[in-house]
Amino acid sequence: MSVIPPCPKCKSPYVYESDELLICPECFYEWNPVDDEKPADDTLRVFDSNNNELFTGDSVIVIKDLPVKGMPKPVKAGTKVKNIRLTDGDHNIDCKIDGFGSMGLKSEFVRKA
Question: What letters, b where the CB count within 10 A reaches 16 and e where it falls short, cover 12-50?
């Protein structure tokens, strides 16, 4: 006799088996328990200041003036940045900004365009 785990979405204990799937009668979620044995999804997820998920290739808008070391002027609020690349780290957006060149931005200072 195997132990049936609770529903991963609603945590209901009333899960039942149907063929090779497990089904939750409360939220109607269906899943294959063999898939649960795979490692967790390690994809990079980055969110903007409005909690919208960002993806590589998106365009974003800077929401506040950002000072840049070695430059006489800051990146102004409202500057549109096209074709971003997501990276892992403190500055999780790599991009090119006209007049400034390549730089890293923090996702908390941008919103999705």
Answer: eeebeeeeeebbbeeeeeebeeeeeeeeeeeeeebebbe
Given its phi and psi angles, is residue 10 left (phi above 0), alpha (psi -120 to 50 degrees) or beta?
alpha
Q: Which of 40, 18, 43 is nearest to 28 (CA)?
A: 18
Per DSSP, the three-state class of 6 is coil
Do 65 and 34 lie in a common domain?
Answer: no
Residue 97, domain extent? 46-112
pLDDT tens for residues 47-56? 999 999 999 9
- Whole-model pTM: value is 0.62
Co-location of 7 and 56 in the same domain: no
Give the span between the Cα atoms of 31 and 17, in whole angstroms: 10
**CB-based burial, 66-88: b 16+ in 10 Å, e otherwise:** beeeeeeeebeeebebeebebee
